[in-house]
What does this fold into?
Amino acid sequence: MNDSEWEQLLASSPRDAYEFLIEQYGGLIYTIVINKLGRFGTREDVEDCVSDIMVEFLKNAGNFSAVTGSLKTYISTVAKFRAIDAFRRISGQNNHYSGIDDEEINLPPSENNTEEEAEKRIFRQELWNIVKSLGEPDSSIIIYQYFYNRKISEIARILGMTSGAVQKRSLRARKKIGVILENGDYYE
Amino acid sequence: MNENKDFMEQLNGLDDEYVEEIAENYPVLDENEKKRILKQCLQKSGLPDGDIEVTENTEPYEDNEEDEISVSGIERYDRPLWRKYAGSAAVLAIAVLGIASVVVLHGNMNVDDFDLSTPPVVSNQYEEQVQVTEIVSGSYIDKGYRADGFDYANQNDYQGKIVGAATAPPSPEVGHVVDEGEPDNNGNNQPETPSPATASPATNPPATTAQQTTAQPVTTAQPVITSTTVIEPVSSEAQSSFLDLLYYVEVSGSSEYMGFAFRPDGTLTKYVFDEYGDAVINTILETTYEIIGNQFSYVSPDGSRRTGTIVNPNDSGNFTVKFDNGELYNFNIQRPDFKALVLLEGTNWFWNADNYSENLEIEFLPDGVGGNYIIYPPDVTTMDSIKVPFTYEKNGYEITFHMEDPAYNILKAELIVPELSEQFVFNVAELEKVTLALEYTNGSIKYFHNGN
It folds into this structure.
């Protein structure tokens, strides 16, 4: 979408613009938000944050220019910052302060936490690679269950499987991941 | 929460490149969620949103394993008194019928009915191509044979039958069933004063026979659950998810939870909760047995083994086993001519074989019925060398196996029953008596078909 198309869409109907954003980038924004919030937020928190991002983006739509960057990149950047804000807000409300990215978000890296964060990062990368290596449908099951926090019944519906099959595969997949991690050398 | 779950939570917080990959390959927003977000956007922008109809999210966002694992909120089940008496009457009737059947059939049965010496026919079409394939259903009988030996049919009144394990023989080794337990401090029901011994349905042979009444005293330990406490039924929340019944069971000093789900098609699935209590294994009730000639070996779920001799097999699949300790138990396998076949609505049946992790498992996917039933041929580790289709024929029935997808080790078997005119409907317990089994070991595949 170029600048003129985007301006035309904005001018014609804000609602159409929202629908376009949700359809095109809703999934990406949702994923960015949940990646930051993790299990700190409820599903409502995530949806609320996603809608906040959409509204903010549309309010400042004039700042975006397709000439200088893609809409996807722009809205992703907005999403990341707003997700971090949401994480701070929610973790503060919940009086929780030990989360996925707290060092990244709040603390300047010292020698100690830099090393720890690096290890966590490596671990997450390794975990992600293992999850991907499971093959389908197990990769999807794990991602929907643990990244998106979806219930078994929802996953079964999404993947067209029975709940029992999802549960069984999830169990096996987790055990397999555990074994791989146990025997792995991802810290090295 | 367990360690397993903890490290899985680390999936959140991934680097941006992975996040984009997830968003692209694992879309999550459904139409209703999109509408909810749109509605929020419009509201926050002061725009009208009245025409957007959304369903509020009622799914709890966190702890999505709770419906798998939780035993909190368990409600006490007060079984009506009349049901106890009705159950007892039904048990008595079944026992009488069993005894009568044994008596009537005793003279007509011959061990030869279970003669497994005739090898099955393997189609020539693939015989040469499948050089590594050996199909055996003759005298060699593998523990892939499975029978639960229990009748879980007619589950409309399942609570009484399951709880009472009505068809199980009384035994001093068998533990106790407590219909109700008092909640402990944590709100969980705990075993109460034991009632008269009753075996667990999951681990005991079925109805005793007339001979059993004269059986020798028990001299060997039975591979049975030593104590069974019914906590059941589970909370309405868990029931609405997938479980209908939940049991707390002690087995040789350790404990586990067993859940049961009754499917719309009348089948029963058993779930055993793992050591973390947060996951389930869809094992379906099953017991392993072997038949070599007239020698019978019964392997309980805990791995212990009992042996015996078939004393009165018959052509209806009923037979009695006299165990080495003198006990006699009735078993039932469906009709010997095609007792391994599950015939339902005259359609095809499919088996998906998957050696995903530990053992090759064969998954029943009954066409037109929905759901799936899984059996686990033991000691199978890989199916790598199954490269081409092969066909098994017996009694006019044909089962074709082929590797559906080598990447996922999906071995598919299709059973065609062309002339079926009767309709047979089996529940899960009977499915467990279906003794199709595949074993793949060291480059050969063996297909076991009970009694043929």
About this structure: Residues 81-106 of chain B form the longest helix (26 residues). The two ends of chain B are 48 Å apart (CA to CA).
